[in-house]
Amino acid sequence: LYPFISDLWTLGILRLFHGLATAMFTPLALAMVAELFATRRGEAFGWYTSATQGGGLLGPMIGGAVVYQYGFSPTFFLAGVFGLFALVFFWLIPQTPTPSRVHQHSVATVWKEMREGFHRVCQIPPILITSVVEAAKMMGNGTLMAFLPLYGLVIGLNAAEIGVLFGVQAFTSFIAKPVMGRISDRGARQPLIFGGLCLCGLMVMFIPHIQGYILLLVIAGTFGFGEAIVTSSTTALVADYSEGKDLGAGMGLRGTIMDIGHAGGPLLAGILIHALGYAGGFFCIGVLLLLTATYFGVRMIGIKNPVVL
Asked: Which homologous superfamily is 2-92+125-300 in?
């Protein structure tokens, strides 16, 4: 529909519905992955998040090439075709509906069940604490996305070199997520989450003290590795504590808290960098990540995971 819109208000309405569709799709997709791979959730979530990350990397590249050659209308049409292909593949996934999902419910009943599910997961401390860890990780990620390019320009890097930094981070995360998810399935997830977030926090703190490009590449790759550890393990841990009808609500709550961290990270980092400079701003964000990791470690490490049936 995007090529047929020419005024700002209609575009805003379309973007609103696009955002609502994404908000509905993401937690339900995560819940479906959790149900289909109950005993291998870490690995499954690793593959899922790697796939979404891969799409996020390829989309701008393919879209940019098509826009350059053919214009905007064919580009949006191609994106829609890819979406329809994804829908077809979804319907090909074998599913075994549970009895509770076969019955028809009124809209009021559905809304009531949604509120009750959300209320239940909000009262489970491990879900909230783990979601806060994901928010802290995204705060660090958002800080890098917003201010690493500016810092790179300050120390004399060009646009291509800065792009490679993000490419190394994304590629490392992409490769490591399924592997680290599988490792988390074989043991306790909590120590991995703690170590991964500490790694992210330390890398954020190191960045403004490094001007050598090779070392910055190592830092970017290490942050991507820590990011992969946290993402695959936190998603699986939230799913472990959100069994049954509350899986979707648990995934939705995690996503909401995560987005708060992602949006708030650049804002907070901008204020800190303006007041304290790059060294002080990155240091404060890194400390926040380390403090969050410490709180998670104190509250969660040693707690026996719920039994996944």
From this structure: MFS general substrate transporter like domains (1.20.1250.20)
Helix (H) or strand (E) holding 170: helix 159-186
Supply the DSSP string of 18-55, one letter for each residue.
HHHHHHHHHHHHHHHHHHHTTTSHHHHHHHHHHHHHHH
Give the pLDDT confidence of 173-222 residue by residue, as tens digits: 989 988 888 888 887 889 999 999 999 999 999 999 998 999 999 999 99
Is the separation of the CB atoms in 240 and 306 below 8 Å? Answer: yes
Between CA 217 and CA 306 the distance in angstroms is 39
* Strand spans (E) along the chain: none
98: tokens are 């549970």
| 25-57 per-position pLDDT tens digit | 777 777 777 777 777 777 888 888 788 877 877
At residue 102 the predicted structure's pLDDT band, cuts being 50, 70 and 90, is: very low
Q: Is residue 30 within 8 Å of 45, Cβ to Cβ?
A: yes
Q: Cα separations (Å) of 59 from 20, 55, 85, 253?
A: 20, 6, 15, 27
Distance CA 118, CA 6 (A): 38
Question: What string of DSSP letters covers 245-296?
Answer: GGHHHHHHHHHHHHHHHHHHHHHHHHHHHHHHHHHHHHHHHHHHHHHHHHHH
The Cα-based distances of 40 to 159, 255, 309 in angstroms read 40, 21, 12
Q: Determine phi and psi for 144, rounding to 5 degrees.
A: -65, -45
Domain layout of the chain by residue ranges = 2-92+125-300
Q: Where does residue 270 rank: exposed (0-12), middle (13-18), buried (19+ CB within 10 A)?
A: middle
Which DSSP category does 156 fall into?
T
Structure tokens at 234: 């936190």
Which 3 state secondary structure label does DSSP give 97? coil
